[in-house]
Design a protein that fits this description.
Pfam families: ABM. This is Antibiotic biosynthesis monooxygenase. The chain is α+β, with helices and mostly antiparallel strands and 108 residues long. The protein has a single domain, classed as 2-Layer Sandwich (Alpha-Beta Plaits), CATH 3.30.70.100. Strands 2-3-1-4 form a 4-stranded antiparallel sheet. It is globular, with a radius of gyration of 14 Å. The model has no long low-confidence stretch (mean pLDDT 94).
Length: 108
């Protein structure tokens, strides 16, 4: 299944981050790559999927527990990125945390 995270059998959690960007990169791309690399090393991280065009994007990260999500939110480097997001990179964003209870996949 290329393009999709290989998640375990549910239940697990999804953090859905939708955003509308400001103009210009302003270091965003480099920080986004750094956040994916850092998150992937966090205990409880299960995977990530992301899509973006010039203005808006959606990123879904998958975690084993709510505690893992909380620890990621509190990560010091992630907090720096959060603040830069509010002050520099995003016009607006929404964050949703969901429990995944069922999943199915299709492959050709």
């Amino acid at each position: 299944m290329s393009g999709y995270s290989k998640t375990p059998e549910p239940p697990y959690y999804a953090v859905i981050f939708t955003s509308e960007r400001t103009e210009g990169d302003k270091g965003y791309g480099k920080m986004a790559d750094k956040m994916v690399e850092l998150a992937s090393k966090q205990k409880g991280f299960l995977g990530i999927e992301s899509a973006r065009d010039e203005e808006s994007g959606i990123t879904v990260s998958y975690w084993d527990t709510l505690d893992s999500i909380r620890k990621w939110k509190e990560n010091a480097t992630h907090k720096v990125a959060q603040e830069k997001g509010k002050s520099l990179w995003y016009r607006n964003f929404a964050l949703r945390v969901c429990k995944v209870e069922r999943q199915s996949f299709f492959e050709m």
